[in-house]
Specification:
The protein is 29% helix and 24% strand. It has 288 residues and is α/β, with parallel strands linked by helices. The longest helix is centred in the first third of the chain and has 14 residues, at 78-91.
Length: 288
C-alpha cells in the first residue's frame, strides 16, 4: 500500500514533509519520503491523501478502562462496551494506551486479545490492580462497598514483605507497570482522611519492582507526602497534586530523576517506552 500526497508530521521534531509517500507492507512501514524520491512499486494499492495530515499514533498514558463498565467485566454487555471503547481510541488516533488500574487478571486477558488479533483496539500496557493501604484509595473511596471490584482491582498492602510478594506475583504474570497509591487525602475537595502506604512499604514495592525490571508509578495528591514518595525513587508520579509544589521538592524530584525509568542513567528511557521495547522489536529514542 502507498499513502500518497499527505503532509507527514513524524514526531521527531523534523519539519512537516509535504507531498509525502509512505510505503506499507502488511504491518510494517517500508519507506517514507517525498513523492519525488520514493518509487511506488507497480501494482501497489494507492491511497490519495492530498490535503490530509499523517502523524504517529497517539499514546494515552493514563486510562482506567474498566470505568466504562459500572457493573464490572462480568456484565453481559461488557464485551460489546469495551469493544466500542477500544474502537473509539483508534478513531481518535490513539494506538497505545496505558491502563493504570483495572480488574485483574481481566485486563491482561484483554491485552492479549488485542495482541493476538482477536479484538480490534490500541496496544494496551497494563498495571493490573492498584497497590494501596488497607482501606486506602481506591478501596476506601471510589470502590467502597464494592467487594468484587476491590478484590480484582486492588491489593491492600500492610507490610513490606507483602508488598514484595505482590510485586513478584504481578511481575511474573506479565504486567507492564506497577501502580501504587500514597494519598491520605484530607484536602478541601476530599476532606476525609484515609489510610495510605507508608514509606517503608512503598520503598519495598519500588525495590522489588526494580529487581523485576518493572517500573513503578505512584498516585499522589498531598504535597506534604510527596518528599517521602520521591525518596524511594519510583519511575513516575501520577497527577499534579492539589497545591503548588515547593521549589525544594521540585529540586528533589529532579535529583531523584522521577519520571525516568532508571535514575542511575544519565540518559534513560521513559517507562512506557521501555515496555514498548520489551513487547516489540523497535527501538525508542532516549528521553529528553
Amino acid at each position: 500500500m502507498a499513502l500518497v500526497g499527505a503532509t507527514l508530521i513524524d514526531g521527531t521534531g523534523a519539519p512537516p514533509l509535504s507531498d509525502a509517500v509512505i510505503l506499507i507492507e502488511k504491518d510494517r512501514i517500508l519507506r517514507v519520503g517525498p513523492r519525488s524520491q520514493v518509487r511506488i512499486p507497480d501494482g501497489a494499492d494507492r491511497k490519495d491523501l492530498t490535503g490530509l495530515k499523517i502523524l504517529p499514533g497517539l499514546i494515552d498514558s493514563h486510562v482506567h478502562i474498566t470505568f466504562a463498565l459500572p457493573r464490572g467485566p462480568s456484565d453481559p454487555q461488557a464485551d460489546a462496551t469495551i469493544n466500542g471503547v477500544l474502537q473509539q481510541f483508534l478513531r481518535h488516533g490513539v494506538t497505545s494506551i496505558r491502563d493504570l488500574g483495572a480488574g485483574y487478571p481481566w485486563i491482561l486477558d484483554l491485552t492479549r486479545s488485542v495482541e493476538q488479533g482477536r479484538r480490534e483496539g490500541p496496544r494496551i500496557f497494563a498495571a493490573g490492580p492498584m497497590l494501596t493501604a488497607l482501606g486506602g484509595h481506591p478501596a476506601g473511596t471510589l470502590l467502597r462497598g464494592n467487594d468484587g471490584a476491590i478484590a480484582s482491582g486492588t491489593r491492600q498492602i500492610v507490610s513490606p514483605e507483602q508488598g514484595r510478594e505482590v510485586v513478584r506475583d504481578l511481575a511474573s504474570s506479565g504486567v507492564d507497570v506497577i501502580k501504587a497509591v500514597l494519598d491520605s487525602r484530607g484536602r478541601p475537595n476530599s476532606p476525609e482522611r484515609i489510610p495510605a502506604l507508608d514509606e517503608a512499604v512503598l520503598g519495598a514495592i519500588v525495590a522489588e519492582a526494580q529487581d523485576a525490571g518493572v517500573p513503578v508509578t505512584v498516585h499522589w495528591g498531598n504535597v506534604n507526602e510527596l518528599p517521602a514518595i520521591v525518596a524511594v525513587r519510583p519511575a513516575q508520579l501520577e497527577h499534579a497534586g492539589y497545591a503548588p509544589i515547593p521549589a525544594a521538592v521540585i529540586s528533589q524530584i529532579a535529583r531523584r530523576h522521577c519520571g525516568r525509568s532508571d535514575a542511575s542513567d544519565h540518559v534513560s528511557y521513559h517507562p512506557l517506552a521501555r515496555s514498548i521495547r520489551k513487547r516489540t522489536s523497535g527501538e525508542c529514542p532516549p528521553a529528553a
